[in-house]
Amino acid sequence: MMLRPLACRARTPLLLVGAALAVVGCRREERRFRESPPATTPSAVRVSALQPGTMADTSHMPNPYESSAYAQSEGQRLFGWYNCAGCHANGGGGMGPPLMDDEWIYGSSPENIYNTIIQGRPNGMPSFAGKIPSPQIWQLVTYVRSLSGLTPMSGRSARTEHMNFYQGAQSMQGAQTPKNSFRPPASEFP
Amino acid sequence: MLLQAVHTQSSLDPVGPLAANTARLWWFALAVATVVYLLVIATACWALARARRRERRGELLDPGGEGRMTTGVTWSIAATVVILLVFLGYDLSVGRTLSPIPKAHPLTIEVTGHQWWWEVQYADSAVHDRFTTANEIHVPVGQPVLFLLTAADVIHSMWVPNLAGKKDLVPGYTQSFWFKADTAGTYRGQCAEFCGHQHAKMAMFIIAEPLQQYQTWVAGQRDTASTPTDSVAARGHTVFMTGTCAMCHNIEGTTAGSHAGPDLTHLASRRTIAAGTLPNTRGNLAGWIVDPQRIKPGAKMPPNQLRPSDLDALLTYLQSLK
């Protein structure tokens, strides 16, 4: 009994620590169905990152759903319900521009995409102001950003039926990782 | 009022031939199981009593015990096999009465399961005679009705215990299934395959009514919605068409043509809202429109912020959709 090897003696505490880690690691994402959306709608949003003189304002309005897997899957559902796919296909683009690449004509930050949906854009993007409740627009924003890999990996589904950005998928376009959203490259300007 | 008229949702209160067969099988199984249970308990008591008696007499060994045990075990195995075979035979014969779809079925209804409501399409032969409703299925009494079942998102299961057994609704696949209601009445059905947050609040009502009454109902459902004439309802119509409602709901005869949510062409003719969750009253409708997530958390309908006067007009319009 006294000569039990160390591994044996340490087994119980190790098991306990392992179980505790497993329990802590099992935290499930909370689904908040009655969450109030951001009270303010983004108004003075810069569509261009170019500014004369010193860069004055690069702060972003945070998207409350940025890392929420549930919001993202809801966004995917709404993408179909509101017929975004009619023009953008499942992210690959068609009549409308593709959403899964890293070129953004009107900006890639959450508030830019929010405004693009609300205001509409010239040459075909309809304005959905008053047609889609604000929380749902933020869910759509989350999903649209996830298409090009701009949302945290933790919130993205490992297996979706839609096309998705993944590392190395866009080697033809300069093998870049997703763009930092507040300093877009020149290619984003038409 | 509605809930009093509804029959008890129970497989043991059958009103159709399929449910009656299933109920008979259930009663038979219960009777056999009861007899077997009583026999087993009685035998066990008898054996205990015998052992006690022997002990009092001071006998340690039972001379013929080994032989009797062999006989007993043989007989009980034989009885078990026979009972199981009887069950199997009866079960198969009941299964045979359930599966074949009657050749003459005057009515075909397509049911699509959604999270968490039922889309119901009356698929008559002529395309212009088709109409869509939700959560409430009217059927004529005494006629077999064929159902074509599919699902839009996840697997659901249609179960109206008083009329028939369960049948799954599987995305991308159409299953058929039929039943016949012998007695007029309202029968509650329920999704019987766990399908997410509001699985429990995914109910349906089968309203079996005499042919005449059924035909009147069908004629009403085929009508498109009329344009509102009074000013309040007309304003409600505008609120519906220009706001968020029209993005998901369909009203025949208007510009609202989305089929993401339940069809509202004849909303006011339905008894409940939100798949049997609430009676269809003005107050419940208002609560549902403003904050569905309080009533059915996770439901796909978003909260709607409307001005009180707009909400009032919208309710008047919705209640005019008879």
Query: What is the overall number of helices of chain B?
Result: 8
Please report the distance between the alpha carbons of the first and last residues of chain B: 19 Å
Element string of chain B (H = helix, E = strand): HHHEEEEEEEEEEHHEEHHH
- Any guess at the CATH architecture of the domain at 63-190 in chain A? Orthogonal Bundle
Class inferred from helices and paired strands of chain A: mainly alpha
The CATH superfamily label of the domain at 63-190 in chain A reads Cytochrome c-like domain
CATH topology of the domain at 63-190 in chain A: Cytochrome Bc1 Complex, Chain D, domain 2
- Topology, number of strands of chain A: 0
Query: Sheet bearing the most strands of chain A, described?
Result: none
Name the helicity range of chain B. 25-40%
Tell me the series of helices and strands of chain A, N- to C-terminal: HHHHHH
Strand order of the largest sheet of chain B: 3-2-1-5-8
CATH class of the domain at 63-190 in chain A: Mainly Alpha
- Beta-strand share of residues of chain A: under 5%
CATH class of the domain at 231-319 in chain B: Mainly Beta
Bin the helical content of chain A.
25-40%
Mean pLDDT of chain B: 91
The count of helical stretches of chain A stands at 6
Specify the CATH architecture of the domain at 231-319 in chain B.
Sandwich
Structural features, described:
The complex is a heterodimer of chains A (190) and B (322). In chain A, 32% of the residues lie in helices and 0% in strands. About 9% of the residues of chain A have low confidence. By secondary structure, chain A is mostly helical. Chain A has a domain of 128 residues: Cytochrome c-like domain (Cytochrome Bc1 Complex, Chain D, domain 2), CATH 1.10.760.10. Chain A is built from six helices and no strands. Chain B is of the alpha+beta class. Among the domains of chain B are: 82 residues; 89 residues, Sandwich (Immunoglobulin-like). Helix content of chain B is 40%, strand content 19%. Chain B has a five-stranded mixed sheet, with no helix packed on it. In chain B, strands 4-10-9-6-7 form a five-stranded mixed sheet. A two-stranded antiparallel ribbon of chain B has the order 11-12. In chain B, helix 2 runs antiparallel to helix 3 and helix 5 crosses helix 8. The longest helix of chain B is centred in the first third of the chain and has 41 residues. Chains A and B meet through loops of A and loops of B.
